[in-house]
Every structure is written in C-alpha cells, then in structure tokens.
Amino acid sequence: MIKLIALVPLFPLIGFLINGFFGKKMSKGMSGSIASISVLASFVVSVLAFIELQHAANKSIVFELFSWISSDTLKIPFEFLYDPLSSLFLLIITGIGFLIHIYSIGYMHEDEGFSRFFTYLNLFVFFMLLLVMGNNYLIMFVGWEGVGLCSYLLIGFWFKNTAYNNAARKAFVMNRIGDLGFLLGILLIFVTYGSISYGNVFSKAGIGSPEVVTSIALLLFVGACGKSAQLPLYTWLPDAMAGPTPVSALIHAATMVTAGIYMIVRSNVFYSISDVASETVAIVGVLTALFAATIGLLQNDIKKILAYSTVSQLGLMFLGLGVGAYSSSVFHVTTHAFFKALLFLGAGSVIHAMGGEQDVRKMGGLKGKIKITYITMLIGTIAISGIPPFSGFFSKDEILAHVYEHSKVLWFLGMITSMLTAFYMFRMLFLTFFGNFRGTHEQEHHLHESPSSMTVPLMVLAALSVLGGLLGLPEFWHQTNWIGDYLDPIIAHKNPSILNHDTEWMLMGLATLSAVTVIYFAHAMFITNKVLPAASEDKLKPWQKVIYNKYYVDEFYDMVIRKPLDLISTLFYKFIDLQVVDGIVNGVGSTVKGLGSAVRLLQTGNIGFYVVSMVMGIVLILLFTFII
Amino acid sequence: MLNGISINYYILLSTVLFIIGAVGVMARRNSIIIFMCIELMLNAVNLLLVAFSTLHNDASGQVFVFFVMAVAAAEVAVGLAILSMIYRNIKTIDTDLLSNLKN
Which of A221, A340, A348, A423 has the fewest beta carbons under 10 Å from its own? Predict the structure, then answer.
C-alpha cells in the first residue's frame, strides 16, 4: 500500500471536485456520503500503508510524481515523502477528519450550504495532506496556503453575518504575516543550501553559518506562530470560532493549527543546531500557554473557552519543541487531536441541543438531558486536565518532564498552565452540565440528544482519548516509549532523558496531585458554592475585567497597527491618489480631448474645401520636390 | 517636332486644360460640372501622353491612354449612378449642401 500513498490526497481532491461541480444538484445524503467516503478511503490507505511501514526496512520513502519546476539551477520535483512523521499525521488527519465528516452530516443537516460545506472540508483535507506529505518546503508551502484558504472560507462559511466575515479576514491577515516569515525562511534555505528538498537540506544543514541557521529557524518559527496561533499572532484563533463547530474541531483544534508543530519537527535539525531559536520557541510557547490559559479562566462562550484552551495547549507543544522533546510534542499533538476534537464536537452537540446557544451562563443541568454528550465530554475534560490514565496525562507529563530537565522556571510556568487548564475546563464542564438549567423555557423544552451520526464520532473519540496514552507510555513503565522510538529516525539530534525514575515519579505525582486539587477547588466553587459568572461586564472586578477582555490585545493591535495604517492610507488616498495620480490620468485625458475638439474643426464636410486643400497640398509637395 | 509644332505647345495646352479642369473642380458647386472638369483633367493628361508617345516613337504611352479612357468611362458610369441616387434622396446635386458629415 505504500506504493499507492499518492492516492491519499487524491481521494479528497476527487471528493472536492465532485461536490464542487455537482454538489448543488445532489441530495444532501449523497453529497455528505461522497465527502465522507473519500476521506474514509484515504484513511484506509493510510492505515494499510502505516502497517506496512512497521515492517519496511527503509522507513523514509520518497515518491517522485513529476518534475514540477525546472529552471536553471532551481529544480523542484513534485515529490511525496512517506516516513514515520508523515504517516502519523496522515492517520490523524484522515482518521479524525473522517469522524468529523460523519459528525458534520448530522450537525449541518439543516444548513442550506450543505454541499458547499463538504466541498470546503474535502478541499481542506486535500491541502492538509499535501502539507504533511510534500518532500520539499514548496509543497509544504502550497498546502500551508491552501489550508489557510480553506480556513478562511470555513470561518466565513455563514457569510451573511458581517462579524463572521471579519473574523475570517482577521484569520487570513494574521496568517499572511506568519506566511511571509515562512516564505522568507524557504528563500533563505534555498539561497544557503541550493535546494529545498528535505533530504538535501537536512543532510548538509551544518554547512550554513550559525547566524544563517538561526535566521532560518526563527523565520520558520514566525510562520509557525501564525498558523499555530502563538504570541503575538494568536488573536485570530479565538475569533475563528465563528465557523461551524465541526470546522473548529477539525481545522482549529485537531489538524491545521498543528501544522506549525509539524513544520518545526520536520525542520528539527535547524533547531537542534541553533540554541537561540530553540530557546525562543520554548519561551514563546510557555508564555502563550500561560497567557491563553489565564484568558480561558473567565470566558463565557463555550467555544471561546475551548479556543483559548487550544492556544494554550499549542503553546505547551511549542514549549516541548523548544526543549528538544520533538517526539513528545508530536505525541501531544496526537492526544490533543483526540480530546480537543472530542471536546469541540461535544460542545457542538451541546450547542445543537440548546438550539444555537453558546453562552455557558445560560446552560446548566444538562447532565441528565444529553447523557452521551455529557459522558464523552467528561472524558475529554479529564483527558485534557491530565488525570492518569487518560491520554492527556501521558503526553503532557512527557513534555513537562523534558522541560524540567531543561529549565525549572519553564517547568514551573508549564505546571501553572496545566493547573489553570484543569480549572477552566472543569469550570466549563460544571457550568454546562451541573446545577440548574438557566436558559429559557423554550430551550429547556427543545433539549434533546443529538442524532447518532453525531454521537458515534463522540464515542469513538472518547475511546481514543482514554486509550491514546498507550502510544507513549513512559519508558520505565513499559520499557519502550512506542511513539518516541517510532519517530526516532527523523530526529537529528537525540535528546535522551537523563532524569532518574524517582524524579519522574515525583513529577508525575505532583502533576496528578495538583490537577486533582484544582478540580476539587473548581468543584467547591461551582458546585458546592454555586458561583456563577457575572451576568454583565460591569460586575467584574478590575483585574477580572482585564482578563475578560483578553488583556485588551485586540484593542492594542487596533491602536498600534491598524489605526496608524488607516491614517497613512487615508493620507495617501487624499493626497497621492486623489491629487497626483488622478491629476496625471485626468490631465492626459483632457489634453487629448482638447486637441481632438480643435482638430475636429478641420473636418468641415465641404467638398470644395477638401479639394482645394488637396490641390494645395499636391502643389506644395511638387514645389518642395522639384524646386527646392 | 510633331507635324511642325513644337512639343512645348502641347505641354502648354495640356497644362492650361488641366488647370481649367482643376479650377473648375475647386470653384464650381454643381456636381455635373465638377464631373466634366474631372474629365477635362483626364483628357489633358491623355493629350500629354499621346504627344510624348509620338515624340519618342513609343506606343506604350498610347496604350496607357486607352487604359485611362476605359477607367474614365467606368468612373463616369459609377459617378453618374451615385449622383442620380443623391439627387433622388435630397433633390439637389449642389456639393455645398452635401455636408452631413460635419454634424
């Protein structure tokens, strides 16, 4: 099946074309089935290829499909690379993608843009697969831009709402800033190494001077910051929740936002050479994690809470990358994809039950009404909070153990982040499912469990969230950490753990204990004392207000970047455009017009006059020719 | 010398005829008169061609004159047809009144 790996991106592309051209003429069931089946087919191929790769002697297989760009010294073949890293991402993308496609059939059932939705979704899966399968940075870039486009289209899916369109534009612009960094990084790689194929570049990564390698690593990281919503470019992700919930689950939690992680793991050789770049990644990661986690504490929109949680978790993954724990970060990407997709889909199910309501202040007591959603979301929440033996515990613990080795300060900040995570996640859970119902009577009457097309994916993801930790059991428990060993060939400089087992036990115990304490605290606050979030902003204390308003970062950007830009644009418009440019253009026009109306008078329409002019002309010509 | 008359007289005569024709074309407003003046100019040229043909003992000038006459005949046929159509439409053949293009 490895030979047929090119089929994996092909199936969603076919699905996209069919839905794009004929979607409107097909029934909803047909349209949804085609989209889902195309992704399922990719998933099957990915699984078979994955199994085959376990026994393959050569773990890094390149397929050249055709020569793509060939110009002088620049030769870029269109190649796919199938190795442990891409095989893992293929499984995540197609597997979770398939579940979310199924879920969407139920969730989007009433929507008029049903086939359009699946068209975009298929296109997204195609570009995401291209991103992780390319064997050079340019193919990755094509996928990178493609998923950005699909993200834009899907955030603004309900395009009649101006706020949603603005959110889509914001996401696009923020991503462009990151993309510019990525593009410059690729150009610098080409200039330095004369190639952009992974194999060629990584094998001679050392020949670049340290400054150049650091620049490359930092530029790539700028790209990752944009796509994976890190400080200072993270603001688009919470707004991206304007899109339909399955989109939030697939694109803005499980797959696209982890593209930055993938890119850095792929380019890990640069980061292992450059300490400055690694250190930057770690610090930006931990700050983002902490920053987003604090914002998450006071949000009231169920999807916004999850969005900040995603930003925070991504920060944690970057922290792991920064300290050289590449395989641990990929492990966390995997488990995070399971439980965050689960939480988003669960939130979608809650919103579905509540008839579109997203404010946790108006929910409460849903536990008995929507049992499957409750149980699955409980599992997701425990998993993200880091309670053993759920999957989130193992991946987070592995990252934190590596961080502890590297720097105690970063570890401490990481621990605080994970405590905050446990708190706000259980706050969301308690407010949504416990206590009394706080919505309207109509909503209470409307409450119902979602159809099975939505609950089955929830159950599958819940199972994965429970068992996902088995992929990377700590070494001293299980002799081998499967995911670590599996990814070993693609990591340039190994960073084996030197912690002794007692320290590891201590860290694990500490993490578990703190999570349990925080959950107990949340329980006391939201269940025993029935604390409810303030109904309006005015009742918040000043510090709460700052957090509630997301530290006014959007307003800050508005003031520092947007307003001056607006001002400059207005000035340019008023003076350069209206006066200089328009003056030149209109000047040329009116000159020609004036000349024309003057010359027009020569055309009298009088035949005698024409004849006289003609004869005079001939006489003059003869005079000039023969006499002068 | 042609039949005892100097070539200069032929040239002078045809020039005078040509100028009379040209002035007629320029000065007159009646289309028929303009037509006749054009014929006059053509015949002035024909005269010159025949004169020089005889002077040089070369028949090609006379051949050329036949062509000019043939073309002139064709031109008269077309021109008169146009004129009669103009007259039918606007009841005049005064060229000063034929200035619709001006507006």
Answer: A423
CB contact (8 A) between residue B99 and residue A612: no
Got the DSSP string for A437-500?
--S-HHHHHH--PPPHHHHHHHHHHHHHHHHGGGGG--HHHHS--HHHHHHGGG-SS-------
The token duo for A159 is 């395009």
Round to whole Å and give the CA distance between A510 and A517.
Answer: 10
Q: For each of the domains in chain B, give its residue range(s) and CATH number, in order of start.
A: 7-97 (1.10.287.3510)
d(CA A340, CA A343): 5
How far apart CA A350 and CA A370 sit, in angstroms, is 8
Residues A496-537: tens digit of each pLDDT: 666 777 788 888 888 888 888 888 888 888 888 777 777 777
> How many A/B residue pairs have CB atoms within 8 Å?
28
Q: Please, is B4 exposed, middle or buried when counting C-beta atoms within 10 Å of its C-beta (0-12, 13-18, 19+)?
A: exposed
- Percent helix, strand, coil in chain B (nearest 5)? 80, 5, 15
Q: Which residue of B has its CA nearest to A601?
A: B102
CA A417 – CA A309 distance, rounded (Å): 10
Q: Do B29 and A606 touch (CB under 8 A)?
A: no
Question: pTM here?
Answer: 0.78
Pair of tokens at residue A311: 């930003």
Q: Residue ranges of chain A with pLDDT lower than 50?
A: none
**Amino acid in the structure at residue A100:** I
Contacting residues for A202 by C-beta, under 8 A, at least 6 apart? A267, A269, A492
Beta bridge partners of B82: none
Inter-chain CB proximity B26 and A612 less than 8 Å: yes
Decide if A607 touches B, using CB distance below 8 A.
yes
Going by C-alpha positions, the residue among A335, A369, A349 that lies closest to residue A437 is A369
**For residue A80, what are the β-bridge partners?**
A63, A134
The ipTM is: 0.78
Quick count: other Cβ atoms within 10 Å of Cβ A389?
A: 12
Distance (Å, rounded) from C-alpha A79 to C-alpha A142?
A: 13
A602 touches chain B (CB under 8 A): no
Report the SS3 class of residue B61: helix
Nearest CA in chain B to A610: B26
Residue A572 CA to residue A205 CA, distance in Å, equals 45
CB contact under 8 A, B101 and A615: no
pLDDT in tens, B30-75: 888 988 999 999 999 999 999 999 888 888 989 999 999 999 999 9
Q: Which residue in A605, A608, A612 is closest to B100 by CB distance?
A: A605
Task: Single out the residue of A67, A62, A68 nearest to residue A6, CA to CA.
Answer: A62
Residues of A in contact with B96 (CB under 8 A): 606-608
| Alpha-carbon distance A620 to nearest alpha carbon in chain B (angstroms) | 15
Chain A CB within 8 Å of residue B98 CB: yes
Mean pLDDT score across all residues of chain B: 88
**Interatomic CA distance for residues A198 and A351, integer angstroms:** 44
Query: Apex CA A372: angle with CA A356 and CA A43, to 5°?
Result: 90
